[in-house]
Amino acid sequence: MAHLDKASYIHSCIYFLDCRRNITASDVIQRISSPNYPLEYTPNLRCEWNIQTEAGYQIQFTIGDSRTESCCDKLRMYEGTQEVGEFSNTFGSENYLTANTSLRVTFTSDGSVQYKGFTANIIRVPYTALPTIGKYTLYIAAVPKLGKYYCNS
Ligand SMILES: [Ca+2]
């Protein structure tokens, strides 16, 4: 991966289109990962997974053994327009439960330095109301630290 000629760039453009997927979370675990995992992903990736489940369920997203270039290659998670997680460098074993029925996951890489990337398991779980204190609903945030609570206002 040290040297890229024009042909390699053309190939990565094709890959760019191939790594967008729609997933319906079910009772069976589904696994997603960066292209080639656990071998090096390719440069210039713009991958996206749109995960849905039906009403009455939440999506459980569990990240496995992962490594990316800390500055420039990132796994991000969104609920609607709100970013709920961002990971790079060495990570894994994070567990995120959505507040709603959809989750968008992106993986992006820049033009140089690749590692093995990320892997994650997806399953749906029956919806459980989040705990509340007064008018605040508690969310368990995926970042920056597991087990830390943030309140919406
Ligand atoms: Ca990179």
Describe the structure.
It is a single chain. The chain has 153 residues and is mostly beta strands. The chain has one domain: Spermadhesin, CUB domain (Jelly Rolls, Sandwich). Helix content is 8%, strand content 44%. It has 1 helix and 14 strands; from the N terminus they run αββββββββββββββ. The strands form 4 sheets. Strands 1-3-10-6-7 form a 5-stranded mixed β-sheet. The radius of gyration is 17 Å and the shape is elongated.
The stretches of 5 or more residues where confidence is low (pLDDT under 50) are 1-17, 141-148
- Strand elements, count: 14
**Spatial order of the strands in the main sheet?**
1-3-10-6-7
Distance between the termini: 46 Å
Q: Mean pLDDT score, rounded?
A: 81
In N-to-C order, the SSE pattern is HEEEEEEEEEEEEEE
Choose one word for the global shape. Answer: elongated
Q: How is the biggest beta sheet arranged?
A: 5 strands, mixed
The CATH architecture comes to Sandwich
CA-atom Rg in angstroms: 17 Å
| SS strand fraction | 35-45%
Tally the structural domains.
1
Portion in helices: under 10%
Q: Which fold name is given in CATH as the topology? A: Jelly Rolls
The CATH homologous superfamily is termed: Spermadhesin, CUB domain
The helix/strand class is mainly beta
List bound small molecules: calcium ion
- CATH top level assignment: Mainly Beta
